[in-house]
Amino acid sequence: MLDNGYVYLAASRLSLFHSTTDWALVIEIFGYSPRGDNPDIHVHTFASRLHARDPREKFVSEQAYVNYLANYPNNDSRFFYPIDGSWQDEDNSELVSTYATHLSLRGASVAIPSVASFGAHGISLEEPGRIRVFELCRFLAATHRELVLGTSQERRVSIVSGMRQILQLEEWRHPDLISDELPSTSLSFQQLAEVLVTGDPSHYRGSEPSNTHWSNWPEGGTL
Prior knowledge:
Layout: E1 8-18, E2 23-32, E3 40-47, H1 62-71, E4 75-80, E5 83-84, E6 102-105, E7 108-111, H2 133-143, H3 145-148, H4 152-155, E8 164-169, H5 187-198
Antiparallel strand pairs: 1-2, 1-8, 2-3, 3-4, 5-6, 6-7
């Protein structure tokens, strides 16, 4: 769901993988949850087979582990954290500290933008004079997209070996799940399914207008 009520969406990407025996669809979501400490990249993998499932040791009981495998046979989630540094407000982690001048983005020092810089990227600050973390995430997605989304290794974290990436989309038409629009009824996802079945990316024609920009999902992060 791109309008996950617990996550402010900043950027997304969709990739398809294929081999003679397997298929996989990966969706990367970069955003911020006020219930978490830091912005993250959530890598959602849907596949015929999955690599590196969570081990038994991560579960409180054998039954919990069995339930995990039974309930999620073809999908898994992994998280990555591209931003480091002491840049969040110590008293309110949803705000950027007024004392912060830089943050570390994948090891690169990136300047905290001025409050006047956000409007150029269609971002209206909720609180005049202060920058909220999700607003900064959206700014970084506009100015450093490749750094806030997954690396090739992160994208493949749950992909079995021997598969090749056959398609990568920076934008697409995503179903509105909260309004009961299913992927199976979406022309875009029907075309993506054809690509996965055949291994031929020409089946995806992108004939529907894209809606993956964060501005199309205003309910995200508002719970």
